[in-house]
Design brief:
Largest sheet: 5 strands, antiparallel
Strand content: 15-25%
Strand order of the largest sheet: 1-2-3-5-4
Bound molecules: adenosine monophosphate, zinc ion
Shape: globular
Distance between the termini: 37 Å
Number of helices: 3
Structural class: alpha+beta
Radius of gyration: 13 Å
Number of strands: 5
Length: 112
């Protein structure tokens, strides 16, 4: 979709710090991390938010959750949050569905 920052990242038009991908989803580091681990899991097709994604493509939502939990198990001790801000008043700023994988317990100490 035109003027969507995550569509541009998925198309390779804007750089990102790639983490992993599947057929349906891509994961990259949040540009302003708020936790020691902060990765975004994003459907490759444009949907406005997680509610819309759940109706339009439930398999892609399951895929996104599975990718996020795989990354969390690789990068953290396994305890993580998966957050979907949905709607501007709830703090959503990018209107392409995405989950925030955050964890305060990295598996490896973070290099300073
Ligand atoms: P939300 O506020 O839930 O819509 O989350 C949007 C997230 O996208 C924020 O945490 C931003 O820091 C992050 N973000 C915005 N632009 C980029 C970008 N170019 N690369 C990586 N993360 C981004
Ligand atoms: Zn988009």
């Amino acid at each position: 979709m035109q003027d969507c920052v995550f569509c541009k990242i998925i198309a390779g038009e804007i750089p990102s710090k790639f983490v992993d991908e599947t057929e349906h989803s891509v994961a990259f580091y949040d540009i302003s991390p708020r936790q020691p681990i902060h990765v975004l899991v994003v459907p490759k097709k444009h949907h406005t938010d997680v509610a819309q994604l759940s109706y339009a493509d439930p398999a892609a939502l399951v895929d996104l959750v599975q990718l996020g939990s795989k990354i969390a198990s690789e990068q953290s001790t396994g305890s993580f949050r998966l957050t979907f801000n949905t709607g501007a008043e709830a703090g959503q700023t990018v209107f392409h569905a995405h989950g925030h994988i955050t964890s305060t317990t990295p598996k490896e100490p973070i290099a300073k």
